[in-house]
Design brief:
The chain is mainly α and 194 residues long. The chain has nine helices and no strands. Helix content is 74%, strand content 0%.
Amino acid sequence: MQKSTFSLTFSSLCIVMNLVLGTVVDLLHIPMLFMDTLGTIFGAVLLGPFYGVLIGMVTNVVQGALTNPRNIPFALVNMAIGLVVGLVARKFRFTLPVAVVTGLLLAVIAPLIGTPIAVWLYAGLTGDGTDLIFLWLKTSGHRIFTAAFIPRIVGNLLDKVACSVVVALLIPALPAHMLTKGNNPFFSNPSQDS
């Protein structure tokens, strides 16, 4: 399989992973967990920032078309995740410690992008598990941005660290021939260490 064919095929699988995991977690009503960016993170680590951004964008557009158009503007969040993870994975081998730090970084970046979208387009209510906390904070006197940001950062601390750690544990389980077909410099030359 050629590199470009592999990249497109793997990207498609990552999009499906985002859609399926995000839907399952949503149906199970697991609070403060989304799992809808695991595929974005996985694709960005293996294929790089370009594919990470592409996976993030397509995921939210498809999710919006299939279930809820409110998901489409949040493509900016998923795209930023793909970009950040792709850049981090080019600079550092995506080990468990790197994954934890990356997850913590994403836990701040995602709400910094997502909160203004939620506030400006939807008055802070997005139909997920953070809405109850948002309403409680809003009625207790917090400004709308603060009330929308706090539950998002708390939820993202759990979600983005968990997704990043899962990817760090999955990458070594992939066959070597798959790793070398990606665009990650750490996998194209398995003897290279950092």
